[in-house]
Write a structure and sequence with these properties.
By secondary structure, this protein is of the alpha/beta class. It has eight helices and seven strands; from the N terminus they run E-H-E-H-E-H-E-H-E-H-E-H-H-E-H. Strand 1, helix 1 and strand 2 form a beta-alpha-beta unit. The model has no long low-confidence stretch (mean pLDDT about 85).
């Protein structure tokens, strides 16, 4: 744990869709963290008891009236963080695969002033993480394309375990990719002049349920995101950096 520095107010944004068997444990672990971390669960139109379980464990809950997808859910969290004056936002998945004990790894580059955004990477340093084949193909392609575009090596473009400073919170509250946002957000942030840093983290296995993305969807996802990245090249030119708050 990092000690002796001011962290400001921290909000953990937990997007969750039908995670009633996982989200309670995630909220409990976040609230038990040695740092004071407020927890916001964005219930993305769940049809189970996700919202009730999260609320029972002490989280603040925003229940979206219908499913917006991961991008809409996370952006809802950024808007909340901006409106309520948080200094740091953490993005933590509601399925329990992120290890809350590693949060300080994400915070250190922000607190030392060396980063605006920190990505928890499953592919930095020694790793035992093994994704399904099609996902691995997609991750390699994203790493190659995005690294060329922003001229910085980013190994894990699809990680949903991230930390953001106030400046990045305000930027993403205004403009955040909708469907599969993590790889696109790397491009948006990189081309807008934000400093991105990757730190090595581990990925836990799901205890309950399964991912909503199968092999076919992974291929569709890869093609769709690559097209979106091309569009973003025209939306976010380096000249727009001066407009970033």
């Amino acid at each position: 744990m990092v000690t002796g520095e001011r962290t400001g107010r921290i909000l953990a944004i937990v997007p969750a869709l039908n995670e009633e068997h996982n989200v309670g444990r995630v909220v409990t672990q976040l609230r038990a963290h040695p740092r004071a971390i407020d927890v916001l669960v964005v219930d993305d139109g769940s049809t189970d008891h996700t919202a009730a379980v999260a609320r029972a464990q002490g989280a603040r809950v925003i229940s979206l009236p219908f499913n917006l997808g991961i991008g809409g859910a996370v952006q809802t969290g950024f808007k909340y963080a901006q409106r309520h004056g948080y200094d740091i936002a953490l993005q933590v998945d509601g399925d329990g695969q992120h290890d809350v004990s590693e949060i300080d790894k994400l915070l250190e580059p922000l607190l030392s002033g060396n980063a605006d955004v920190v990505i928890g990477s499953r592919y930095k340093g020694a790793t035992t993480y093994k994704a399904p084949f099609m996902r691995r193909v997609g991750m390699v392609i994203f790493a190659l394309v995005n690294s060329l575009i922003i001229r910085q090596r980013v190994a894990d473009n699809t990680s949903g375990f991230r930390a953001f400073n106030r400046r990045a919170i305000c930027f993403l509250a205004r403009d955040y990719p909708a469907d599969y946002p993590e790889p696109e957000a790397v491009v948006l942030l990189g081309r807008s002049g934000f400093r991105l840093v990757e730190v090595a983290v581990i990925m836990n296995q799901r205890l309950h349920g399964r991912s909503s993305i199968d092999s076919f969807q992974a291929m569709y996802y890869m093609i769709k995101v690559l097209l979106a990245v091309v569009v973003d090249l025209f939306r976010y030119s380096p000249q727009r950096r001066e407009q970033v708050p």
